[in-house]
Amino acid sequence: MYRTNTCGELRIANLNQEVTLSGWVQKARKFGGMIFVDLRDRYGITQLVFNQETNAALCEQAVKLGREWVIQVIGAVTERSSKNPNLPTGDIEITVSELNVLNASETPPFTIEDESDGGDDLRMKYRYLDLRRTPVRANLELRHRMAFATRSYLNDLRFMEVETPVLIGSTPEGARDFIVPSRMNPGEFYALPQSPQLLKQLLMVSGFDRYFQIVKCFRDEDLRADRQPEFTQIDCEMSFIEQEDILSIFEGLTKYLFETIKNIDIPNFPRITYADAMRLYGSDKPDTRFGMQFVEIKDLTEGKGFGVFDSAEYVGAICAKGCASYTRKQLDELTDFVKRPQIGAKGLVYVRYEADGSLKSSVDKFYSPEDLKKWAEKAGAKPGDLLLILCGETEKTQKQLSELRLEMGNRLNLRDKNKYNCLWVIDFPLLEYDEELNRYFAKHHPFTSPKPEDISLLDSNPGAVRANAYDLVINGVEIGGGSIRIYNSELQKKMFSVLGFGDEQAQAQFGFLLNAFKYGAPPHGGIAFGLDRFVSIFAGLDSIRDCIAFPKNNSGRDVMFDAPSTITQEQLDELHLKVDWPKK
Amino acid sequence: MYRTNTCGELRIANLNQEVTLSGWVQKARKFGGMIFVDLRDRYGITQLVFNQETNAALCEQAVKLGREWVIQVIGAVTERSSKNPNLPTGDIEITVSELNVLNASETPPFTIEDESDGGDDLRMKYRYLDLRRTPVRANLELRHRMAFATRSYLNDLRFMEVETPVLIGSTPEGARDFIVPSRMNPGEFYALPQSPQLLKQLLMVSGFDRYFQIVKCFRDEDLRADRQPEFTQIDCEMSFIEQEDILSIFEGLTKYLFETIKNIDIPNFPRITYADAMRLYGSDKPDTRFGMQFVEIKDLTEGKGFGVFDSAEYVGAICAKGCASYTRKQLDELTDFVKRPQIGAKGLVYVRYEADGSLKSSVDKFYSPEDLKKWAEKAGAKPGDLLLILCGETEKTQKQLSELRLEMGNRLNLRDKNKYNCLWVIDFPLLEYDEELNRYFAKHHPFTSPKPEDISLLDSNPGAVRANAYDLVINGVEIGGGSIRIYNSELQKKMFSVLGFGDEQAQAQFGFLLNAFKYGAPPHGGIAFGLDRFVSIFAGLDSIRDCIAFPKNNSGRDVMFDAPSTITQEQLDELHLKVDWPKK
Prior knowledge:
Two copies of one chain form a homodimer.
Chain A: E1 18-31, E2 34-41, E3 44-51, H1 56-62, E4 70-79, E5 92-103, H2 120-125, H3 127-130, H4 134-156, E6 160-161, E7 179-181, E8 189-191, H5 197-205, E9 210-218, E10 230-239, H6 243-262, E11 271-273, H7 274-281, E12 295-296, H8 298-301, H9 307-310, E13 314-320, H10 328-339, E14 349-353, E15 359-361, H11 369-378, E16 386-392, H12 394-411, E17 422-426, E18 431-434, E19 439-442, H13 457-460, E20 469-474, E21 477-484, H14 489-498, H15 503-517, E22 524-530, H16 531-539, H17 569-574, E23 577-579
Parallel strand pairs in A: 3-5, 6-9, 11-17
Antiparallel strand pairs in A: 1-2, 1-4, 2-3, 4-5, 7-8, 9-10, 10-22, 12-13, 13-16, 14-15, 14-16, 17-20, 18-19, 20-21, 21-22
Helix pairs in contact in A: 4-6, 4-16, 5-15, 14-15
């Protein structure tokens, strides 16, 4: 038997017990005639003590132990003379009587401590050592607990987890598929699912009523910082329900997770329409941990000879509380921030509402203090506050103002990682117009149902049609979203025609779903949460990568595995494939 | 709101309540002035009644309802005049006051009944309709419950579920990989994992201590009846444990599932060595629901002039209780059975131990009744029994005798699907000799640990070395298996040398694991159960296909999805691939 106890469980109550422990040497130090070793496993750290006086031979063995060696010890639980209140096992130590080295270790390329000295690349290459660090392992433990609690919650509500296939057919619409050549069907390919969307809708046609799956999804996209080619969704679908049922069940799930995992009681989630979210925050995933809502002041700025505002479609302000004292340098920084190519504003107008009640702005040439006062009043500014104003084409400017708002949130420490603001964004537009391709695209997917009261607009003003679609946003991060689906064939045909799909094309791309719908599809809808993001939010992480055991880098590469890699000619021949790329 | 209740929950206690139900029309029939409709959903069936006398207009609507239409009704719970004791809702019916057709249905291509009139191919093409049938859906519900209970059990024992990547590197050893071309790294490929074996061992190096995952695995093999290109494993690994720990925890899991899912109490699992399993059953996955163990009678047959036995390495008998009365025809059938090319025996010898105590055999020319009596005694035969005897090269003959034993088990109805016999097969050989390639292969995988007492045989007699490897067998089906792994570098080197791997080759194929092992690998081992087979056994199914929502056929094809399929030239170009196969 390798151990009687873990390294995290012995307490003063175990005094004088003879125990066997196994684990890794966290550190060893000599002190007088003693050697102290911190022994670590997943469950904690226990101090071992080797006494030169009582057992010289053992000490000689112990002195050779290096960091990360795997050892087994037998010894007695004794009370520490100097206790460590920061360690659950800090009241005791093990006076070792027998030591077995199970495995030696080379010196690891970086320290296995909460704060490691290893850079990103090194830690990714030796991911198995990085995973030894307590905070990294804690992220994975959190992920396990969240997934497990999610399953419990959904199982209690009679959701059935159904595994859908990973090898499916390629559907050209949407993002790019990863494809898998079929050896048994040469020249043909499977695709890896971007989501089980069509399959879960089929399961509703099958009468499964309440489906869920925690499932890997795949998208062959150029990776941004927070994207992975494979990611995990909590995927759900329900029949005979309305939007309200889905919101209430998945708001319940979110609250349940906060409560059971983090012991935080979250109040009922506010709901905001997409239109309001854009108007007030310039974003469909607003961070509502702080206010600083947009105020439109176009009407107050007109006709004073300031051409920039006069010619702008939109003039919007945010009020930064207590920032009237911002220096020239700080204001220049903000101007530079909004002028960065990623944001793209032409400039930034500010109004300082000084503590003494006077008003100073970068547009004093055009506007009187009375004019500025009106802006300040509309924005709810008080003496000591700072107005920041952007103008231009409405949608673009709102997005820029949104970035500025988040930046100000950061500067004012209003985005506390330990505070959680959840909200539903609802009433998304059904369609998005693509200027380049000169056609409408489904914002969610072609099976999303329009709001019944907007169906009549499908012909006259498709862009104004709102969908029964919703997103869950926490702290400015889109955790997931979903929609009520179309289940009526006539409406589906109408939708395809708005999207410019001919019957034939619709049949080719979604044939099996359309066929299935002929045999009695129930009203249904669903939602999917991104598990990686959800865990990141719970863990207070900046990147989803840190809650994935073996993530890929921005080139889609697993540097530890050295994957992807070349394969043998034999493998290619069996698949009847040729690579049209110069060999390395 | 689409419903106040499901179709499975209303009882006599709900009498006179006004309810709303939604579901599918299972069947509709006219009877006198009434129309009766069976309304079905996932939860059950409720009878609806439309009364011509009290509501003629409604009846006119109802008479149009076809099979599988989706409807919503409002009505009152009333007591049935003729109750149906076979239906949980059989005491009541709904007297309908309002009917809404939610969706019509074309006539389905086969009946949605427990016993359908649809053939296999048709049902696979319309899998979404096949899944509507209660027994099919029940298999998927069972699968959900087994997976959920497995997670609960393992979570309680502090196992952590860790998701390992689906896009990994190709490892040439083992079965054939599915590969995935990387667009971002042209000419390079990911592979889909055949199992997370190496990754879970890395997690042990990372100190995760107890890992599990219910995970999809992929093998590009030519499919046999009971193989799928993607399948699901309950995959586990533990550190600081010995074989006994793994057997006890996973015997516990199996018992827990039988108890919670099927309410069956399974006694402690017998254990049998691989050697005994081969000797007594000719199989490493013996069906122990019945005895009929092999008896070796070579010693009793020699020197009587029967050359066939005399020249055979092995002569083995099984005793079929009560079969002395088998007719010539029946015996011929058995002879034909063992002579089939798949089995390949040269012939079958029988001995009838007649009820009157006399003995008659197909080899009476060579053996006296006294000789035969000795055989019968050794085989534990009693008057009325039948001995069936095969001979030849030991291993081959044992396999043939195993097939004959199973056939006799079938004929004698000894293989009851409602009886469950679980056992551990242990002490598997570490290595298997490949005559063709003239080298040893790892029977399990190259990281499986030999039994410590056999390590010294690695040089002198590698074929005799037993592994710390084990399989769980239920009713003759291998549910899963695993092993204790090598964690000592020296022993690993030795193992590679026995397998004929050079250092370089070992490094190329398993480099990252060997590197990881340099930094303090703990003693570890694991196991993996095939979830598909496990569910099949619980469900009493003949094929794993029936417990998979969207399975593939024997050509690896999903006929519903029509996958795999050709992809666009654009997709191929982006991947820098050319297909070397004539277009269809």
